Amino acid sequence: MLYPTLTDTRSLIDLSGVWKFYLDDGSKDVAIDQPLETTDLMAVPGSFNDQGVLSKIRNHAGTIWYEREFSIPQTLLSERLVLRFGSATHQATVYVNGQKVVEHKGGFLPFEAEINGVIQRRKNRLLVEVSTLLDYTTLPVGNHTQSTDEHGRTIHHVDENFDFFNYAGLHRPVKIYSTPQTYIEDIVLAPSVNGEDASVQTSVQVVGDYDQVMISILDEDGNKVAGADTPEATITIEQAHLWEPMNAYLYTAHVEVVKEGEVIDEYDEPFGIRTVEVKEGQFFINQKPFYFKGFGKHEDTYYNGRGLNETANVMDLNLFKWIGANSFRTSHYPYSEEMMRLADRMGIVVIDEVPAVGLFSGFSALLTSGSDVKNTWDEMKTHEAHEQAIRELIQRDKNHAAVVMWVIANEPASHQDGAHEYFEPLVHLAKELDPQKRPTTIVNIMFALPDVDQVLDLVDVVSLNRYYGWYLNSGDLQTAEKALRAEIEAWIKKHPEKPILFTEYGADTVAGFHAIDDIPFTEEYQVRYYEMYHRVFDEFKQVTGEQVWNFADFETKVGTARVQGNKKGIFTRERQPKMLAHELRKRWTSIPDYDYK
Ligand code: GCB
């Protein structure tokens, strides 16, 4: 699915703004053929939760409705008109003028519908029914329960099976774009490097009648450097500029569809040339051993919640440059297309994660398995949602140079029987679908140590989330250090050919708390915790990178282990540095992107 952009043959109407909003408490039926009866308003894109202020709105679980009107300029009515949602969290049914045009399940990936058949002159009414619910069939996984209030109405409750607030709503842009009736449906680009030159396996899918597809590869100055005149082609680029971490170079595949000598549709797809390979226990980008320095992040800001915040995105990636980071993981769901395009342009390496978090029966943020000891793989009915998320994520992000690896799940119960059988087809699916055959990983939880893990043999990289010195050996960094070292040694023994990537390690730290001794939650303890981990990482060639948890403090559900959210940020939620940020900056600016080990 192509990102909607303006071209000489395509128009774009942005429906961002303030929409009507109705929180469905079951007290009345919403008539889809009538204007939404409400006086409440909500900005789109954005999570509704914090905008709504009241607890009743912020914590609402169930259905919400959004509505706005739009007009289509007459000049566009003969074009193909597509209504597109960057995402709707977590499930949506969309009506235009009272007619259903599309439904979509899964809160972090785009979907669209052709709307020509339902468009009217002058005003059109767009109504969207969104469900915030999560259960054992969805990704992420939520514990869904319901009760009845004094009026006999159903009250839903979702207890997140994961450690971030269940922000919901229309989080990403809603747009209408036009294409001609014959249109470019998709462009697939898979680059490879041969010495100084590169070749790009290119495939253009066109719907409708046409005579020819013309592909021009443009360099950053807009000069044509190569091309082809068939929809499937291997295009050679001589003296290719590589896309390098922190030194991006983006070519553009300019595609034209020609009929009777006229260009009837065109699209520009930016792409970078780089290779990715895992071998000999290391992670290679452009045939050089790469060292990941960076963060697990969240889409999480004040006011917007999980809603697109491009100002924060730009600032965050500028903070990456300041601190010497080169990468992030889209923990724990696919991020906006806008963020992925920004990462391509800024040369930030991305590990791209499907929203498969919470695949752990009885999960608790304290890393205790809780009282529920049921087997996860008997309980969860997420296979279908998981397959769909992998398909849609790879379909959306396949061309991004920034993306170097797919994460099939974060912290599943991979020590429980059934895990291997659950994951094997999913890992194969990702490999099969990805035109660039990127490496895959499954992020391992501390319960699934090398003696019991059943899934890391399926993937290319051993990714570890570790909290020695925090959830375990809290305040005792000496014991924590021994345990960490011993565990790394055990993984090397078990999977000597696989690189080890630390995808999470961290300690909650309340900015402004200080102590001389090793006291958890203080800024000094966070610094010493990281010094310990880094000392150990530097002993092992196989440790191929460090992504700290988390870039910034972020919102979670309430609980005794959370102080107005998770405080493991290196920056506060306002993006102010904690003491550790300065220490990390010293370390990371002295570690090169390549050949550190
Ligand atoms: C984890 C999870 C992450 C949590 C983190 C923590 O292992 O992957 O979502 O936020 O631990 O801080 O507990």
What does the model show?
With 597 residues, the chain is an alpha/beta fold. The protein folds into three domains: 168 residues, Sandwich (Jelly Rolls), CATH 2.60.120.260; 89 residues, Immunoglobulin-like (Sandwich); 315 residues, TIM Barrel, CATH 3.20.20. The protein contains ten helices and 30 strands. Strands 23-24-25-26-27-28-29-30 form an eight-stranded parallel beta barrel, surrounded by four helices. Strands 3-2-4-9-6-7 form a six-stranded antiparallel beta sheet, with no helix packed on it. The protein has a four-stranded antiparallel beta sheet with strand order 1-12-5-8, with no helix packed on it. Strand 15 and strand 16 form a beta hairpin. Helix 6 runs parallel beside helix 7. The longest helix is centred in the last third of the chain and has 18 residues. The radius of gyration is 24 Å and the shape is globular. The chain starts with 11 loop residues before the first strand and ends in a 7-residue tail after the last helix. The model has no long low-confidence stretch (mean pLDDT 97).
CATH hierarchy class name of the largest domain = Alpha Beta
Gyration radius, rounded: 24 Å
- The secondary structure category is alpha/beta
Give the proportion of residues in helices. Answer: 10-25%
Overall pLDDT confidence: 97
Largest sheet: 8 strands, parallel, barrel
CATH homologous superfamily classification of the largest domain = Glycosidases
The CATH architecture assignment of the largest domain turns out to be: Alpha-Beta Barrel
